[in-house]
Model the fold of this input.
Amino acid sequence: MRGALQPAQARLAYLGSFVGQQLQEAGLLPISEPLEPLEDVVQTALHPVGPSPSFRENLRSNLLIAAERKMTGLVVEYPRPFREGIVLGLSMGLLATILATLALVFRSRFSQHGR
Amino acid sequence: MVEQGESALIQAAKVDPNAFSRLYELYVDRIYSYIFHRVGNVHDAEDLTSRTFFRALSHLEEYEDKGAPFSAWLYRIAHNLVANWHRDRSRRPVVALDDLVIHGLLEERPDVVAESKDNVRMLTEVIHKLDITRQELLVLKFTEGLSNAEIGSIMRRSEGAIKSLYHRTLLAMRKELLKRGLSAK
Done:
């Protein structure tokens, strides 16, 4: 009789621990083990990081210039990064080439019709 | 609540470039650290830090002291820029932890560096597996040392919701660490 009950007891215990864990994860049950040790580990890993002194100083002087311009009524805009400038330039160049090609094609067709 | 001195500095910064420069000095390290941990590389961290302060400068008149710290306003700008960055690139943030922790350990305990390196790498992977919201919560909590209320004002959630999310994040991390055979004890 006792032997027959053992698997059922084991299943119930497993089910109980599973439900308990799910409820803990949902924050509905208080956790049995403290989380402080884990917090300490994460704290060790997530260090504050500082910017390089040159970046810090460059940005400070750029902001100072921008702030002075803003006081005189000019609009403050973040300078477009070099990489974005290249992409924008190439896109504009490509668009201009396509438009010029189309214009030439249409012009030659119209001139042929004219003759 | 914004402190009296800081409140005066913010008012001064609306008309005085040097006052804005002092505000910048007060917050640049914290904002950079937050952005760096969320994007995982120096180049984008510098770019987004610059954008944050340029945006703060151009919208400073719109800032009103409503009880939240000025830093929460700055973090909110940074949060939006980082969110756009992730959306544009559809990237998962990479938290560059290894070098930071190992550098500190080398000075104190060179014998434990190898083991710690593995543990930190595993912890990094576990953090990467979390969704972006949970990663942001951990960065604000641990690198910036903000309270649940401050984090809530940045992430636009209630203090209770942040507390609950934090709890669930730690439980999920512990479960994942245990699965990988690493105990946090």
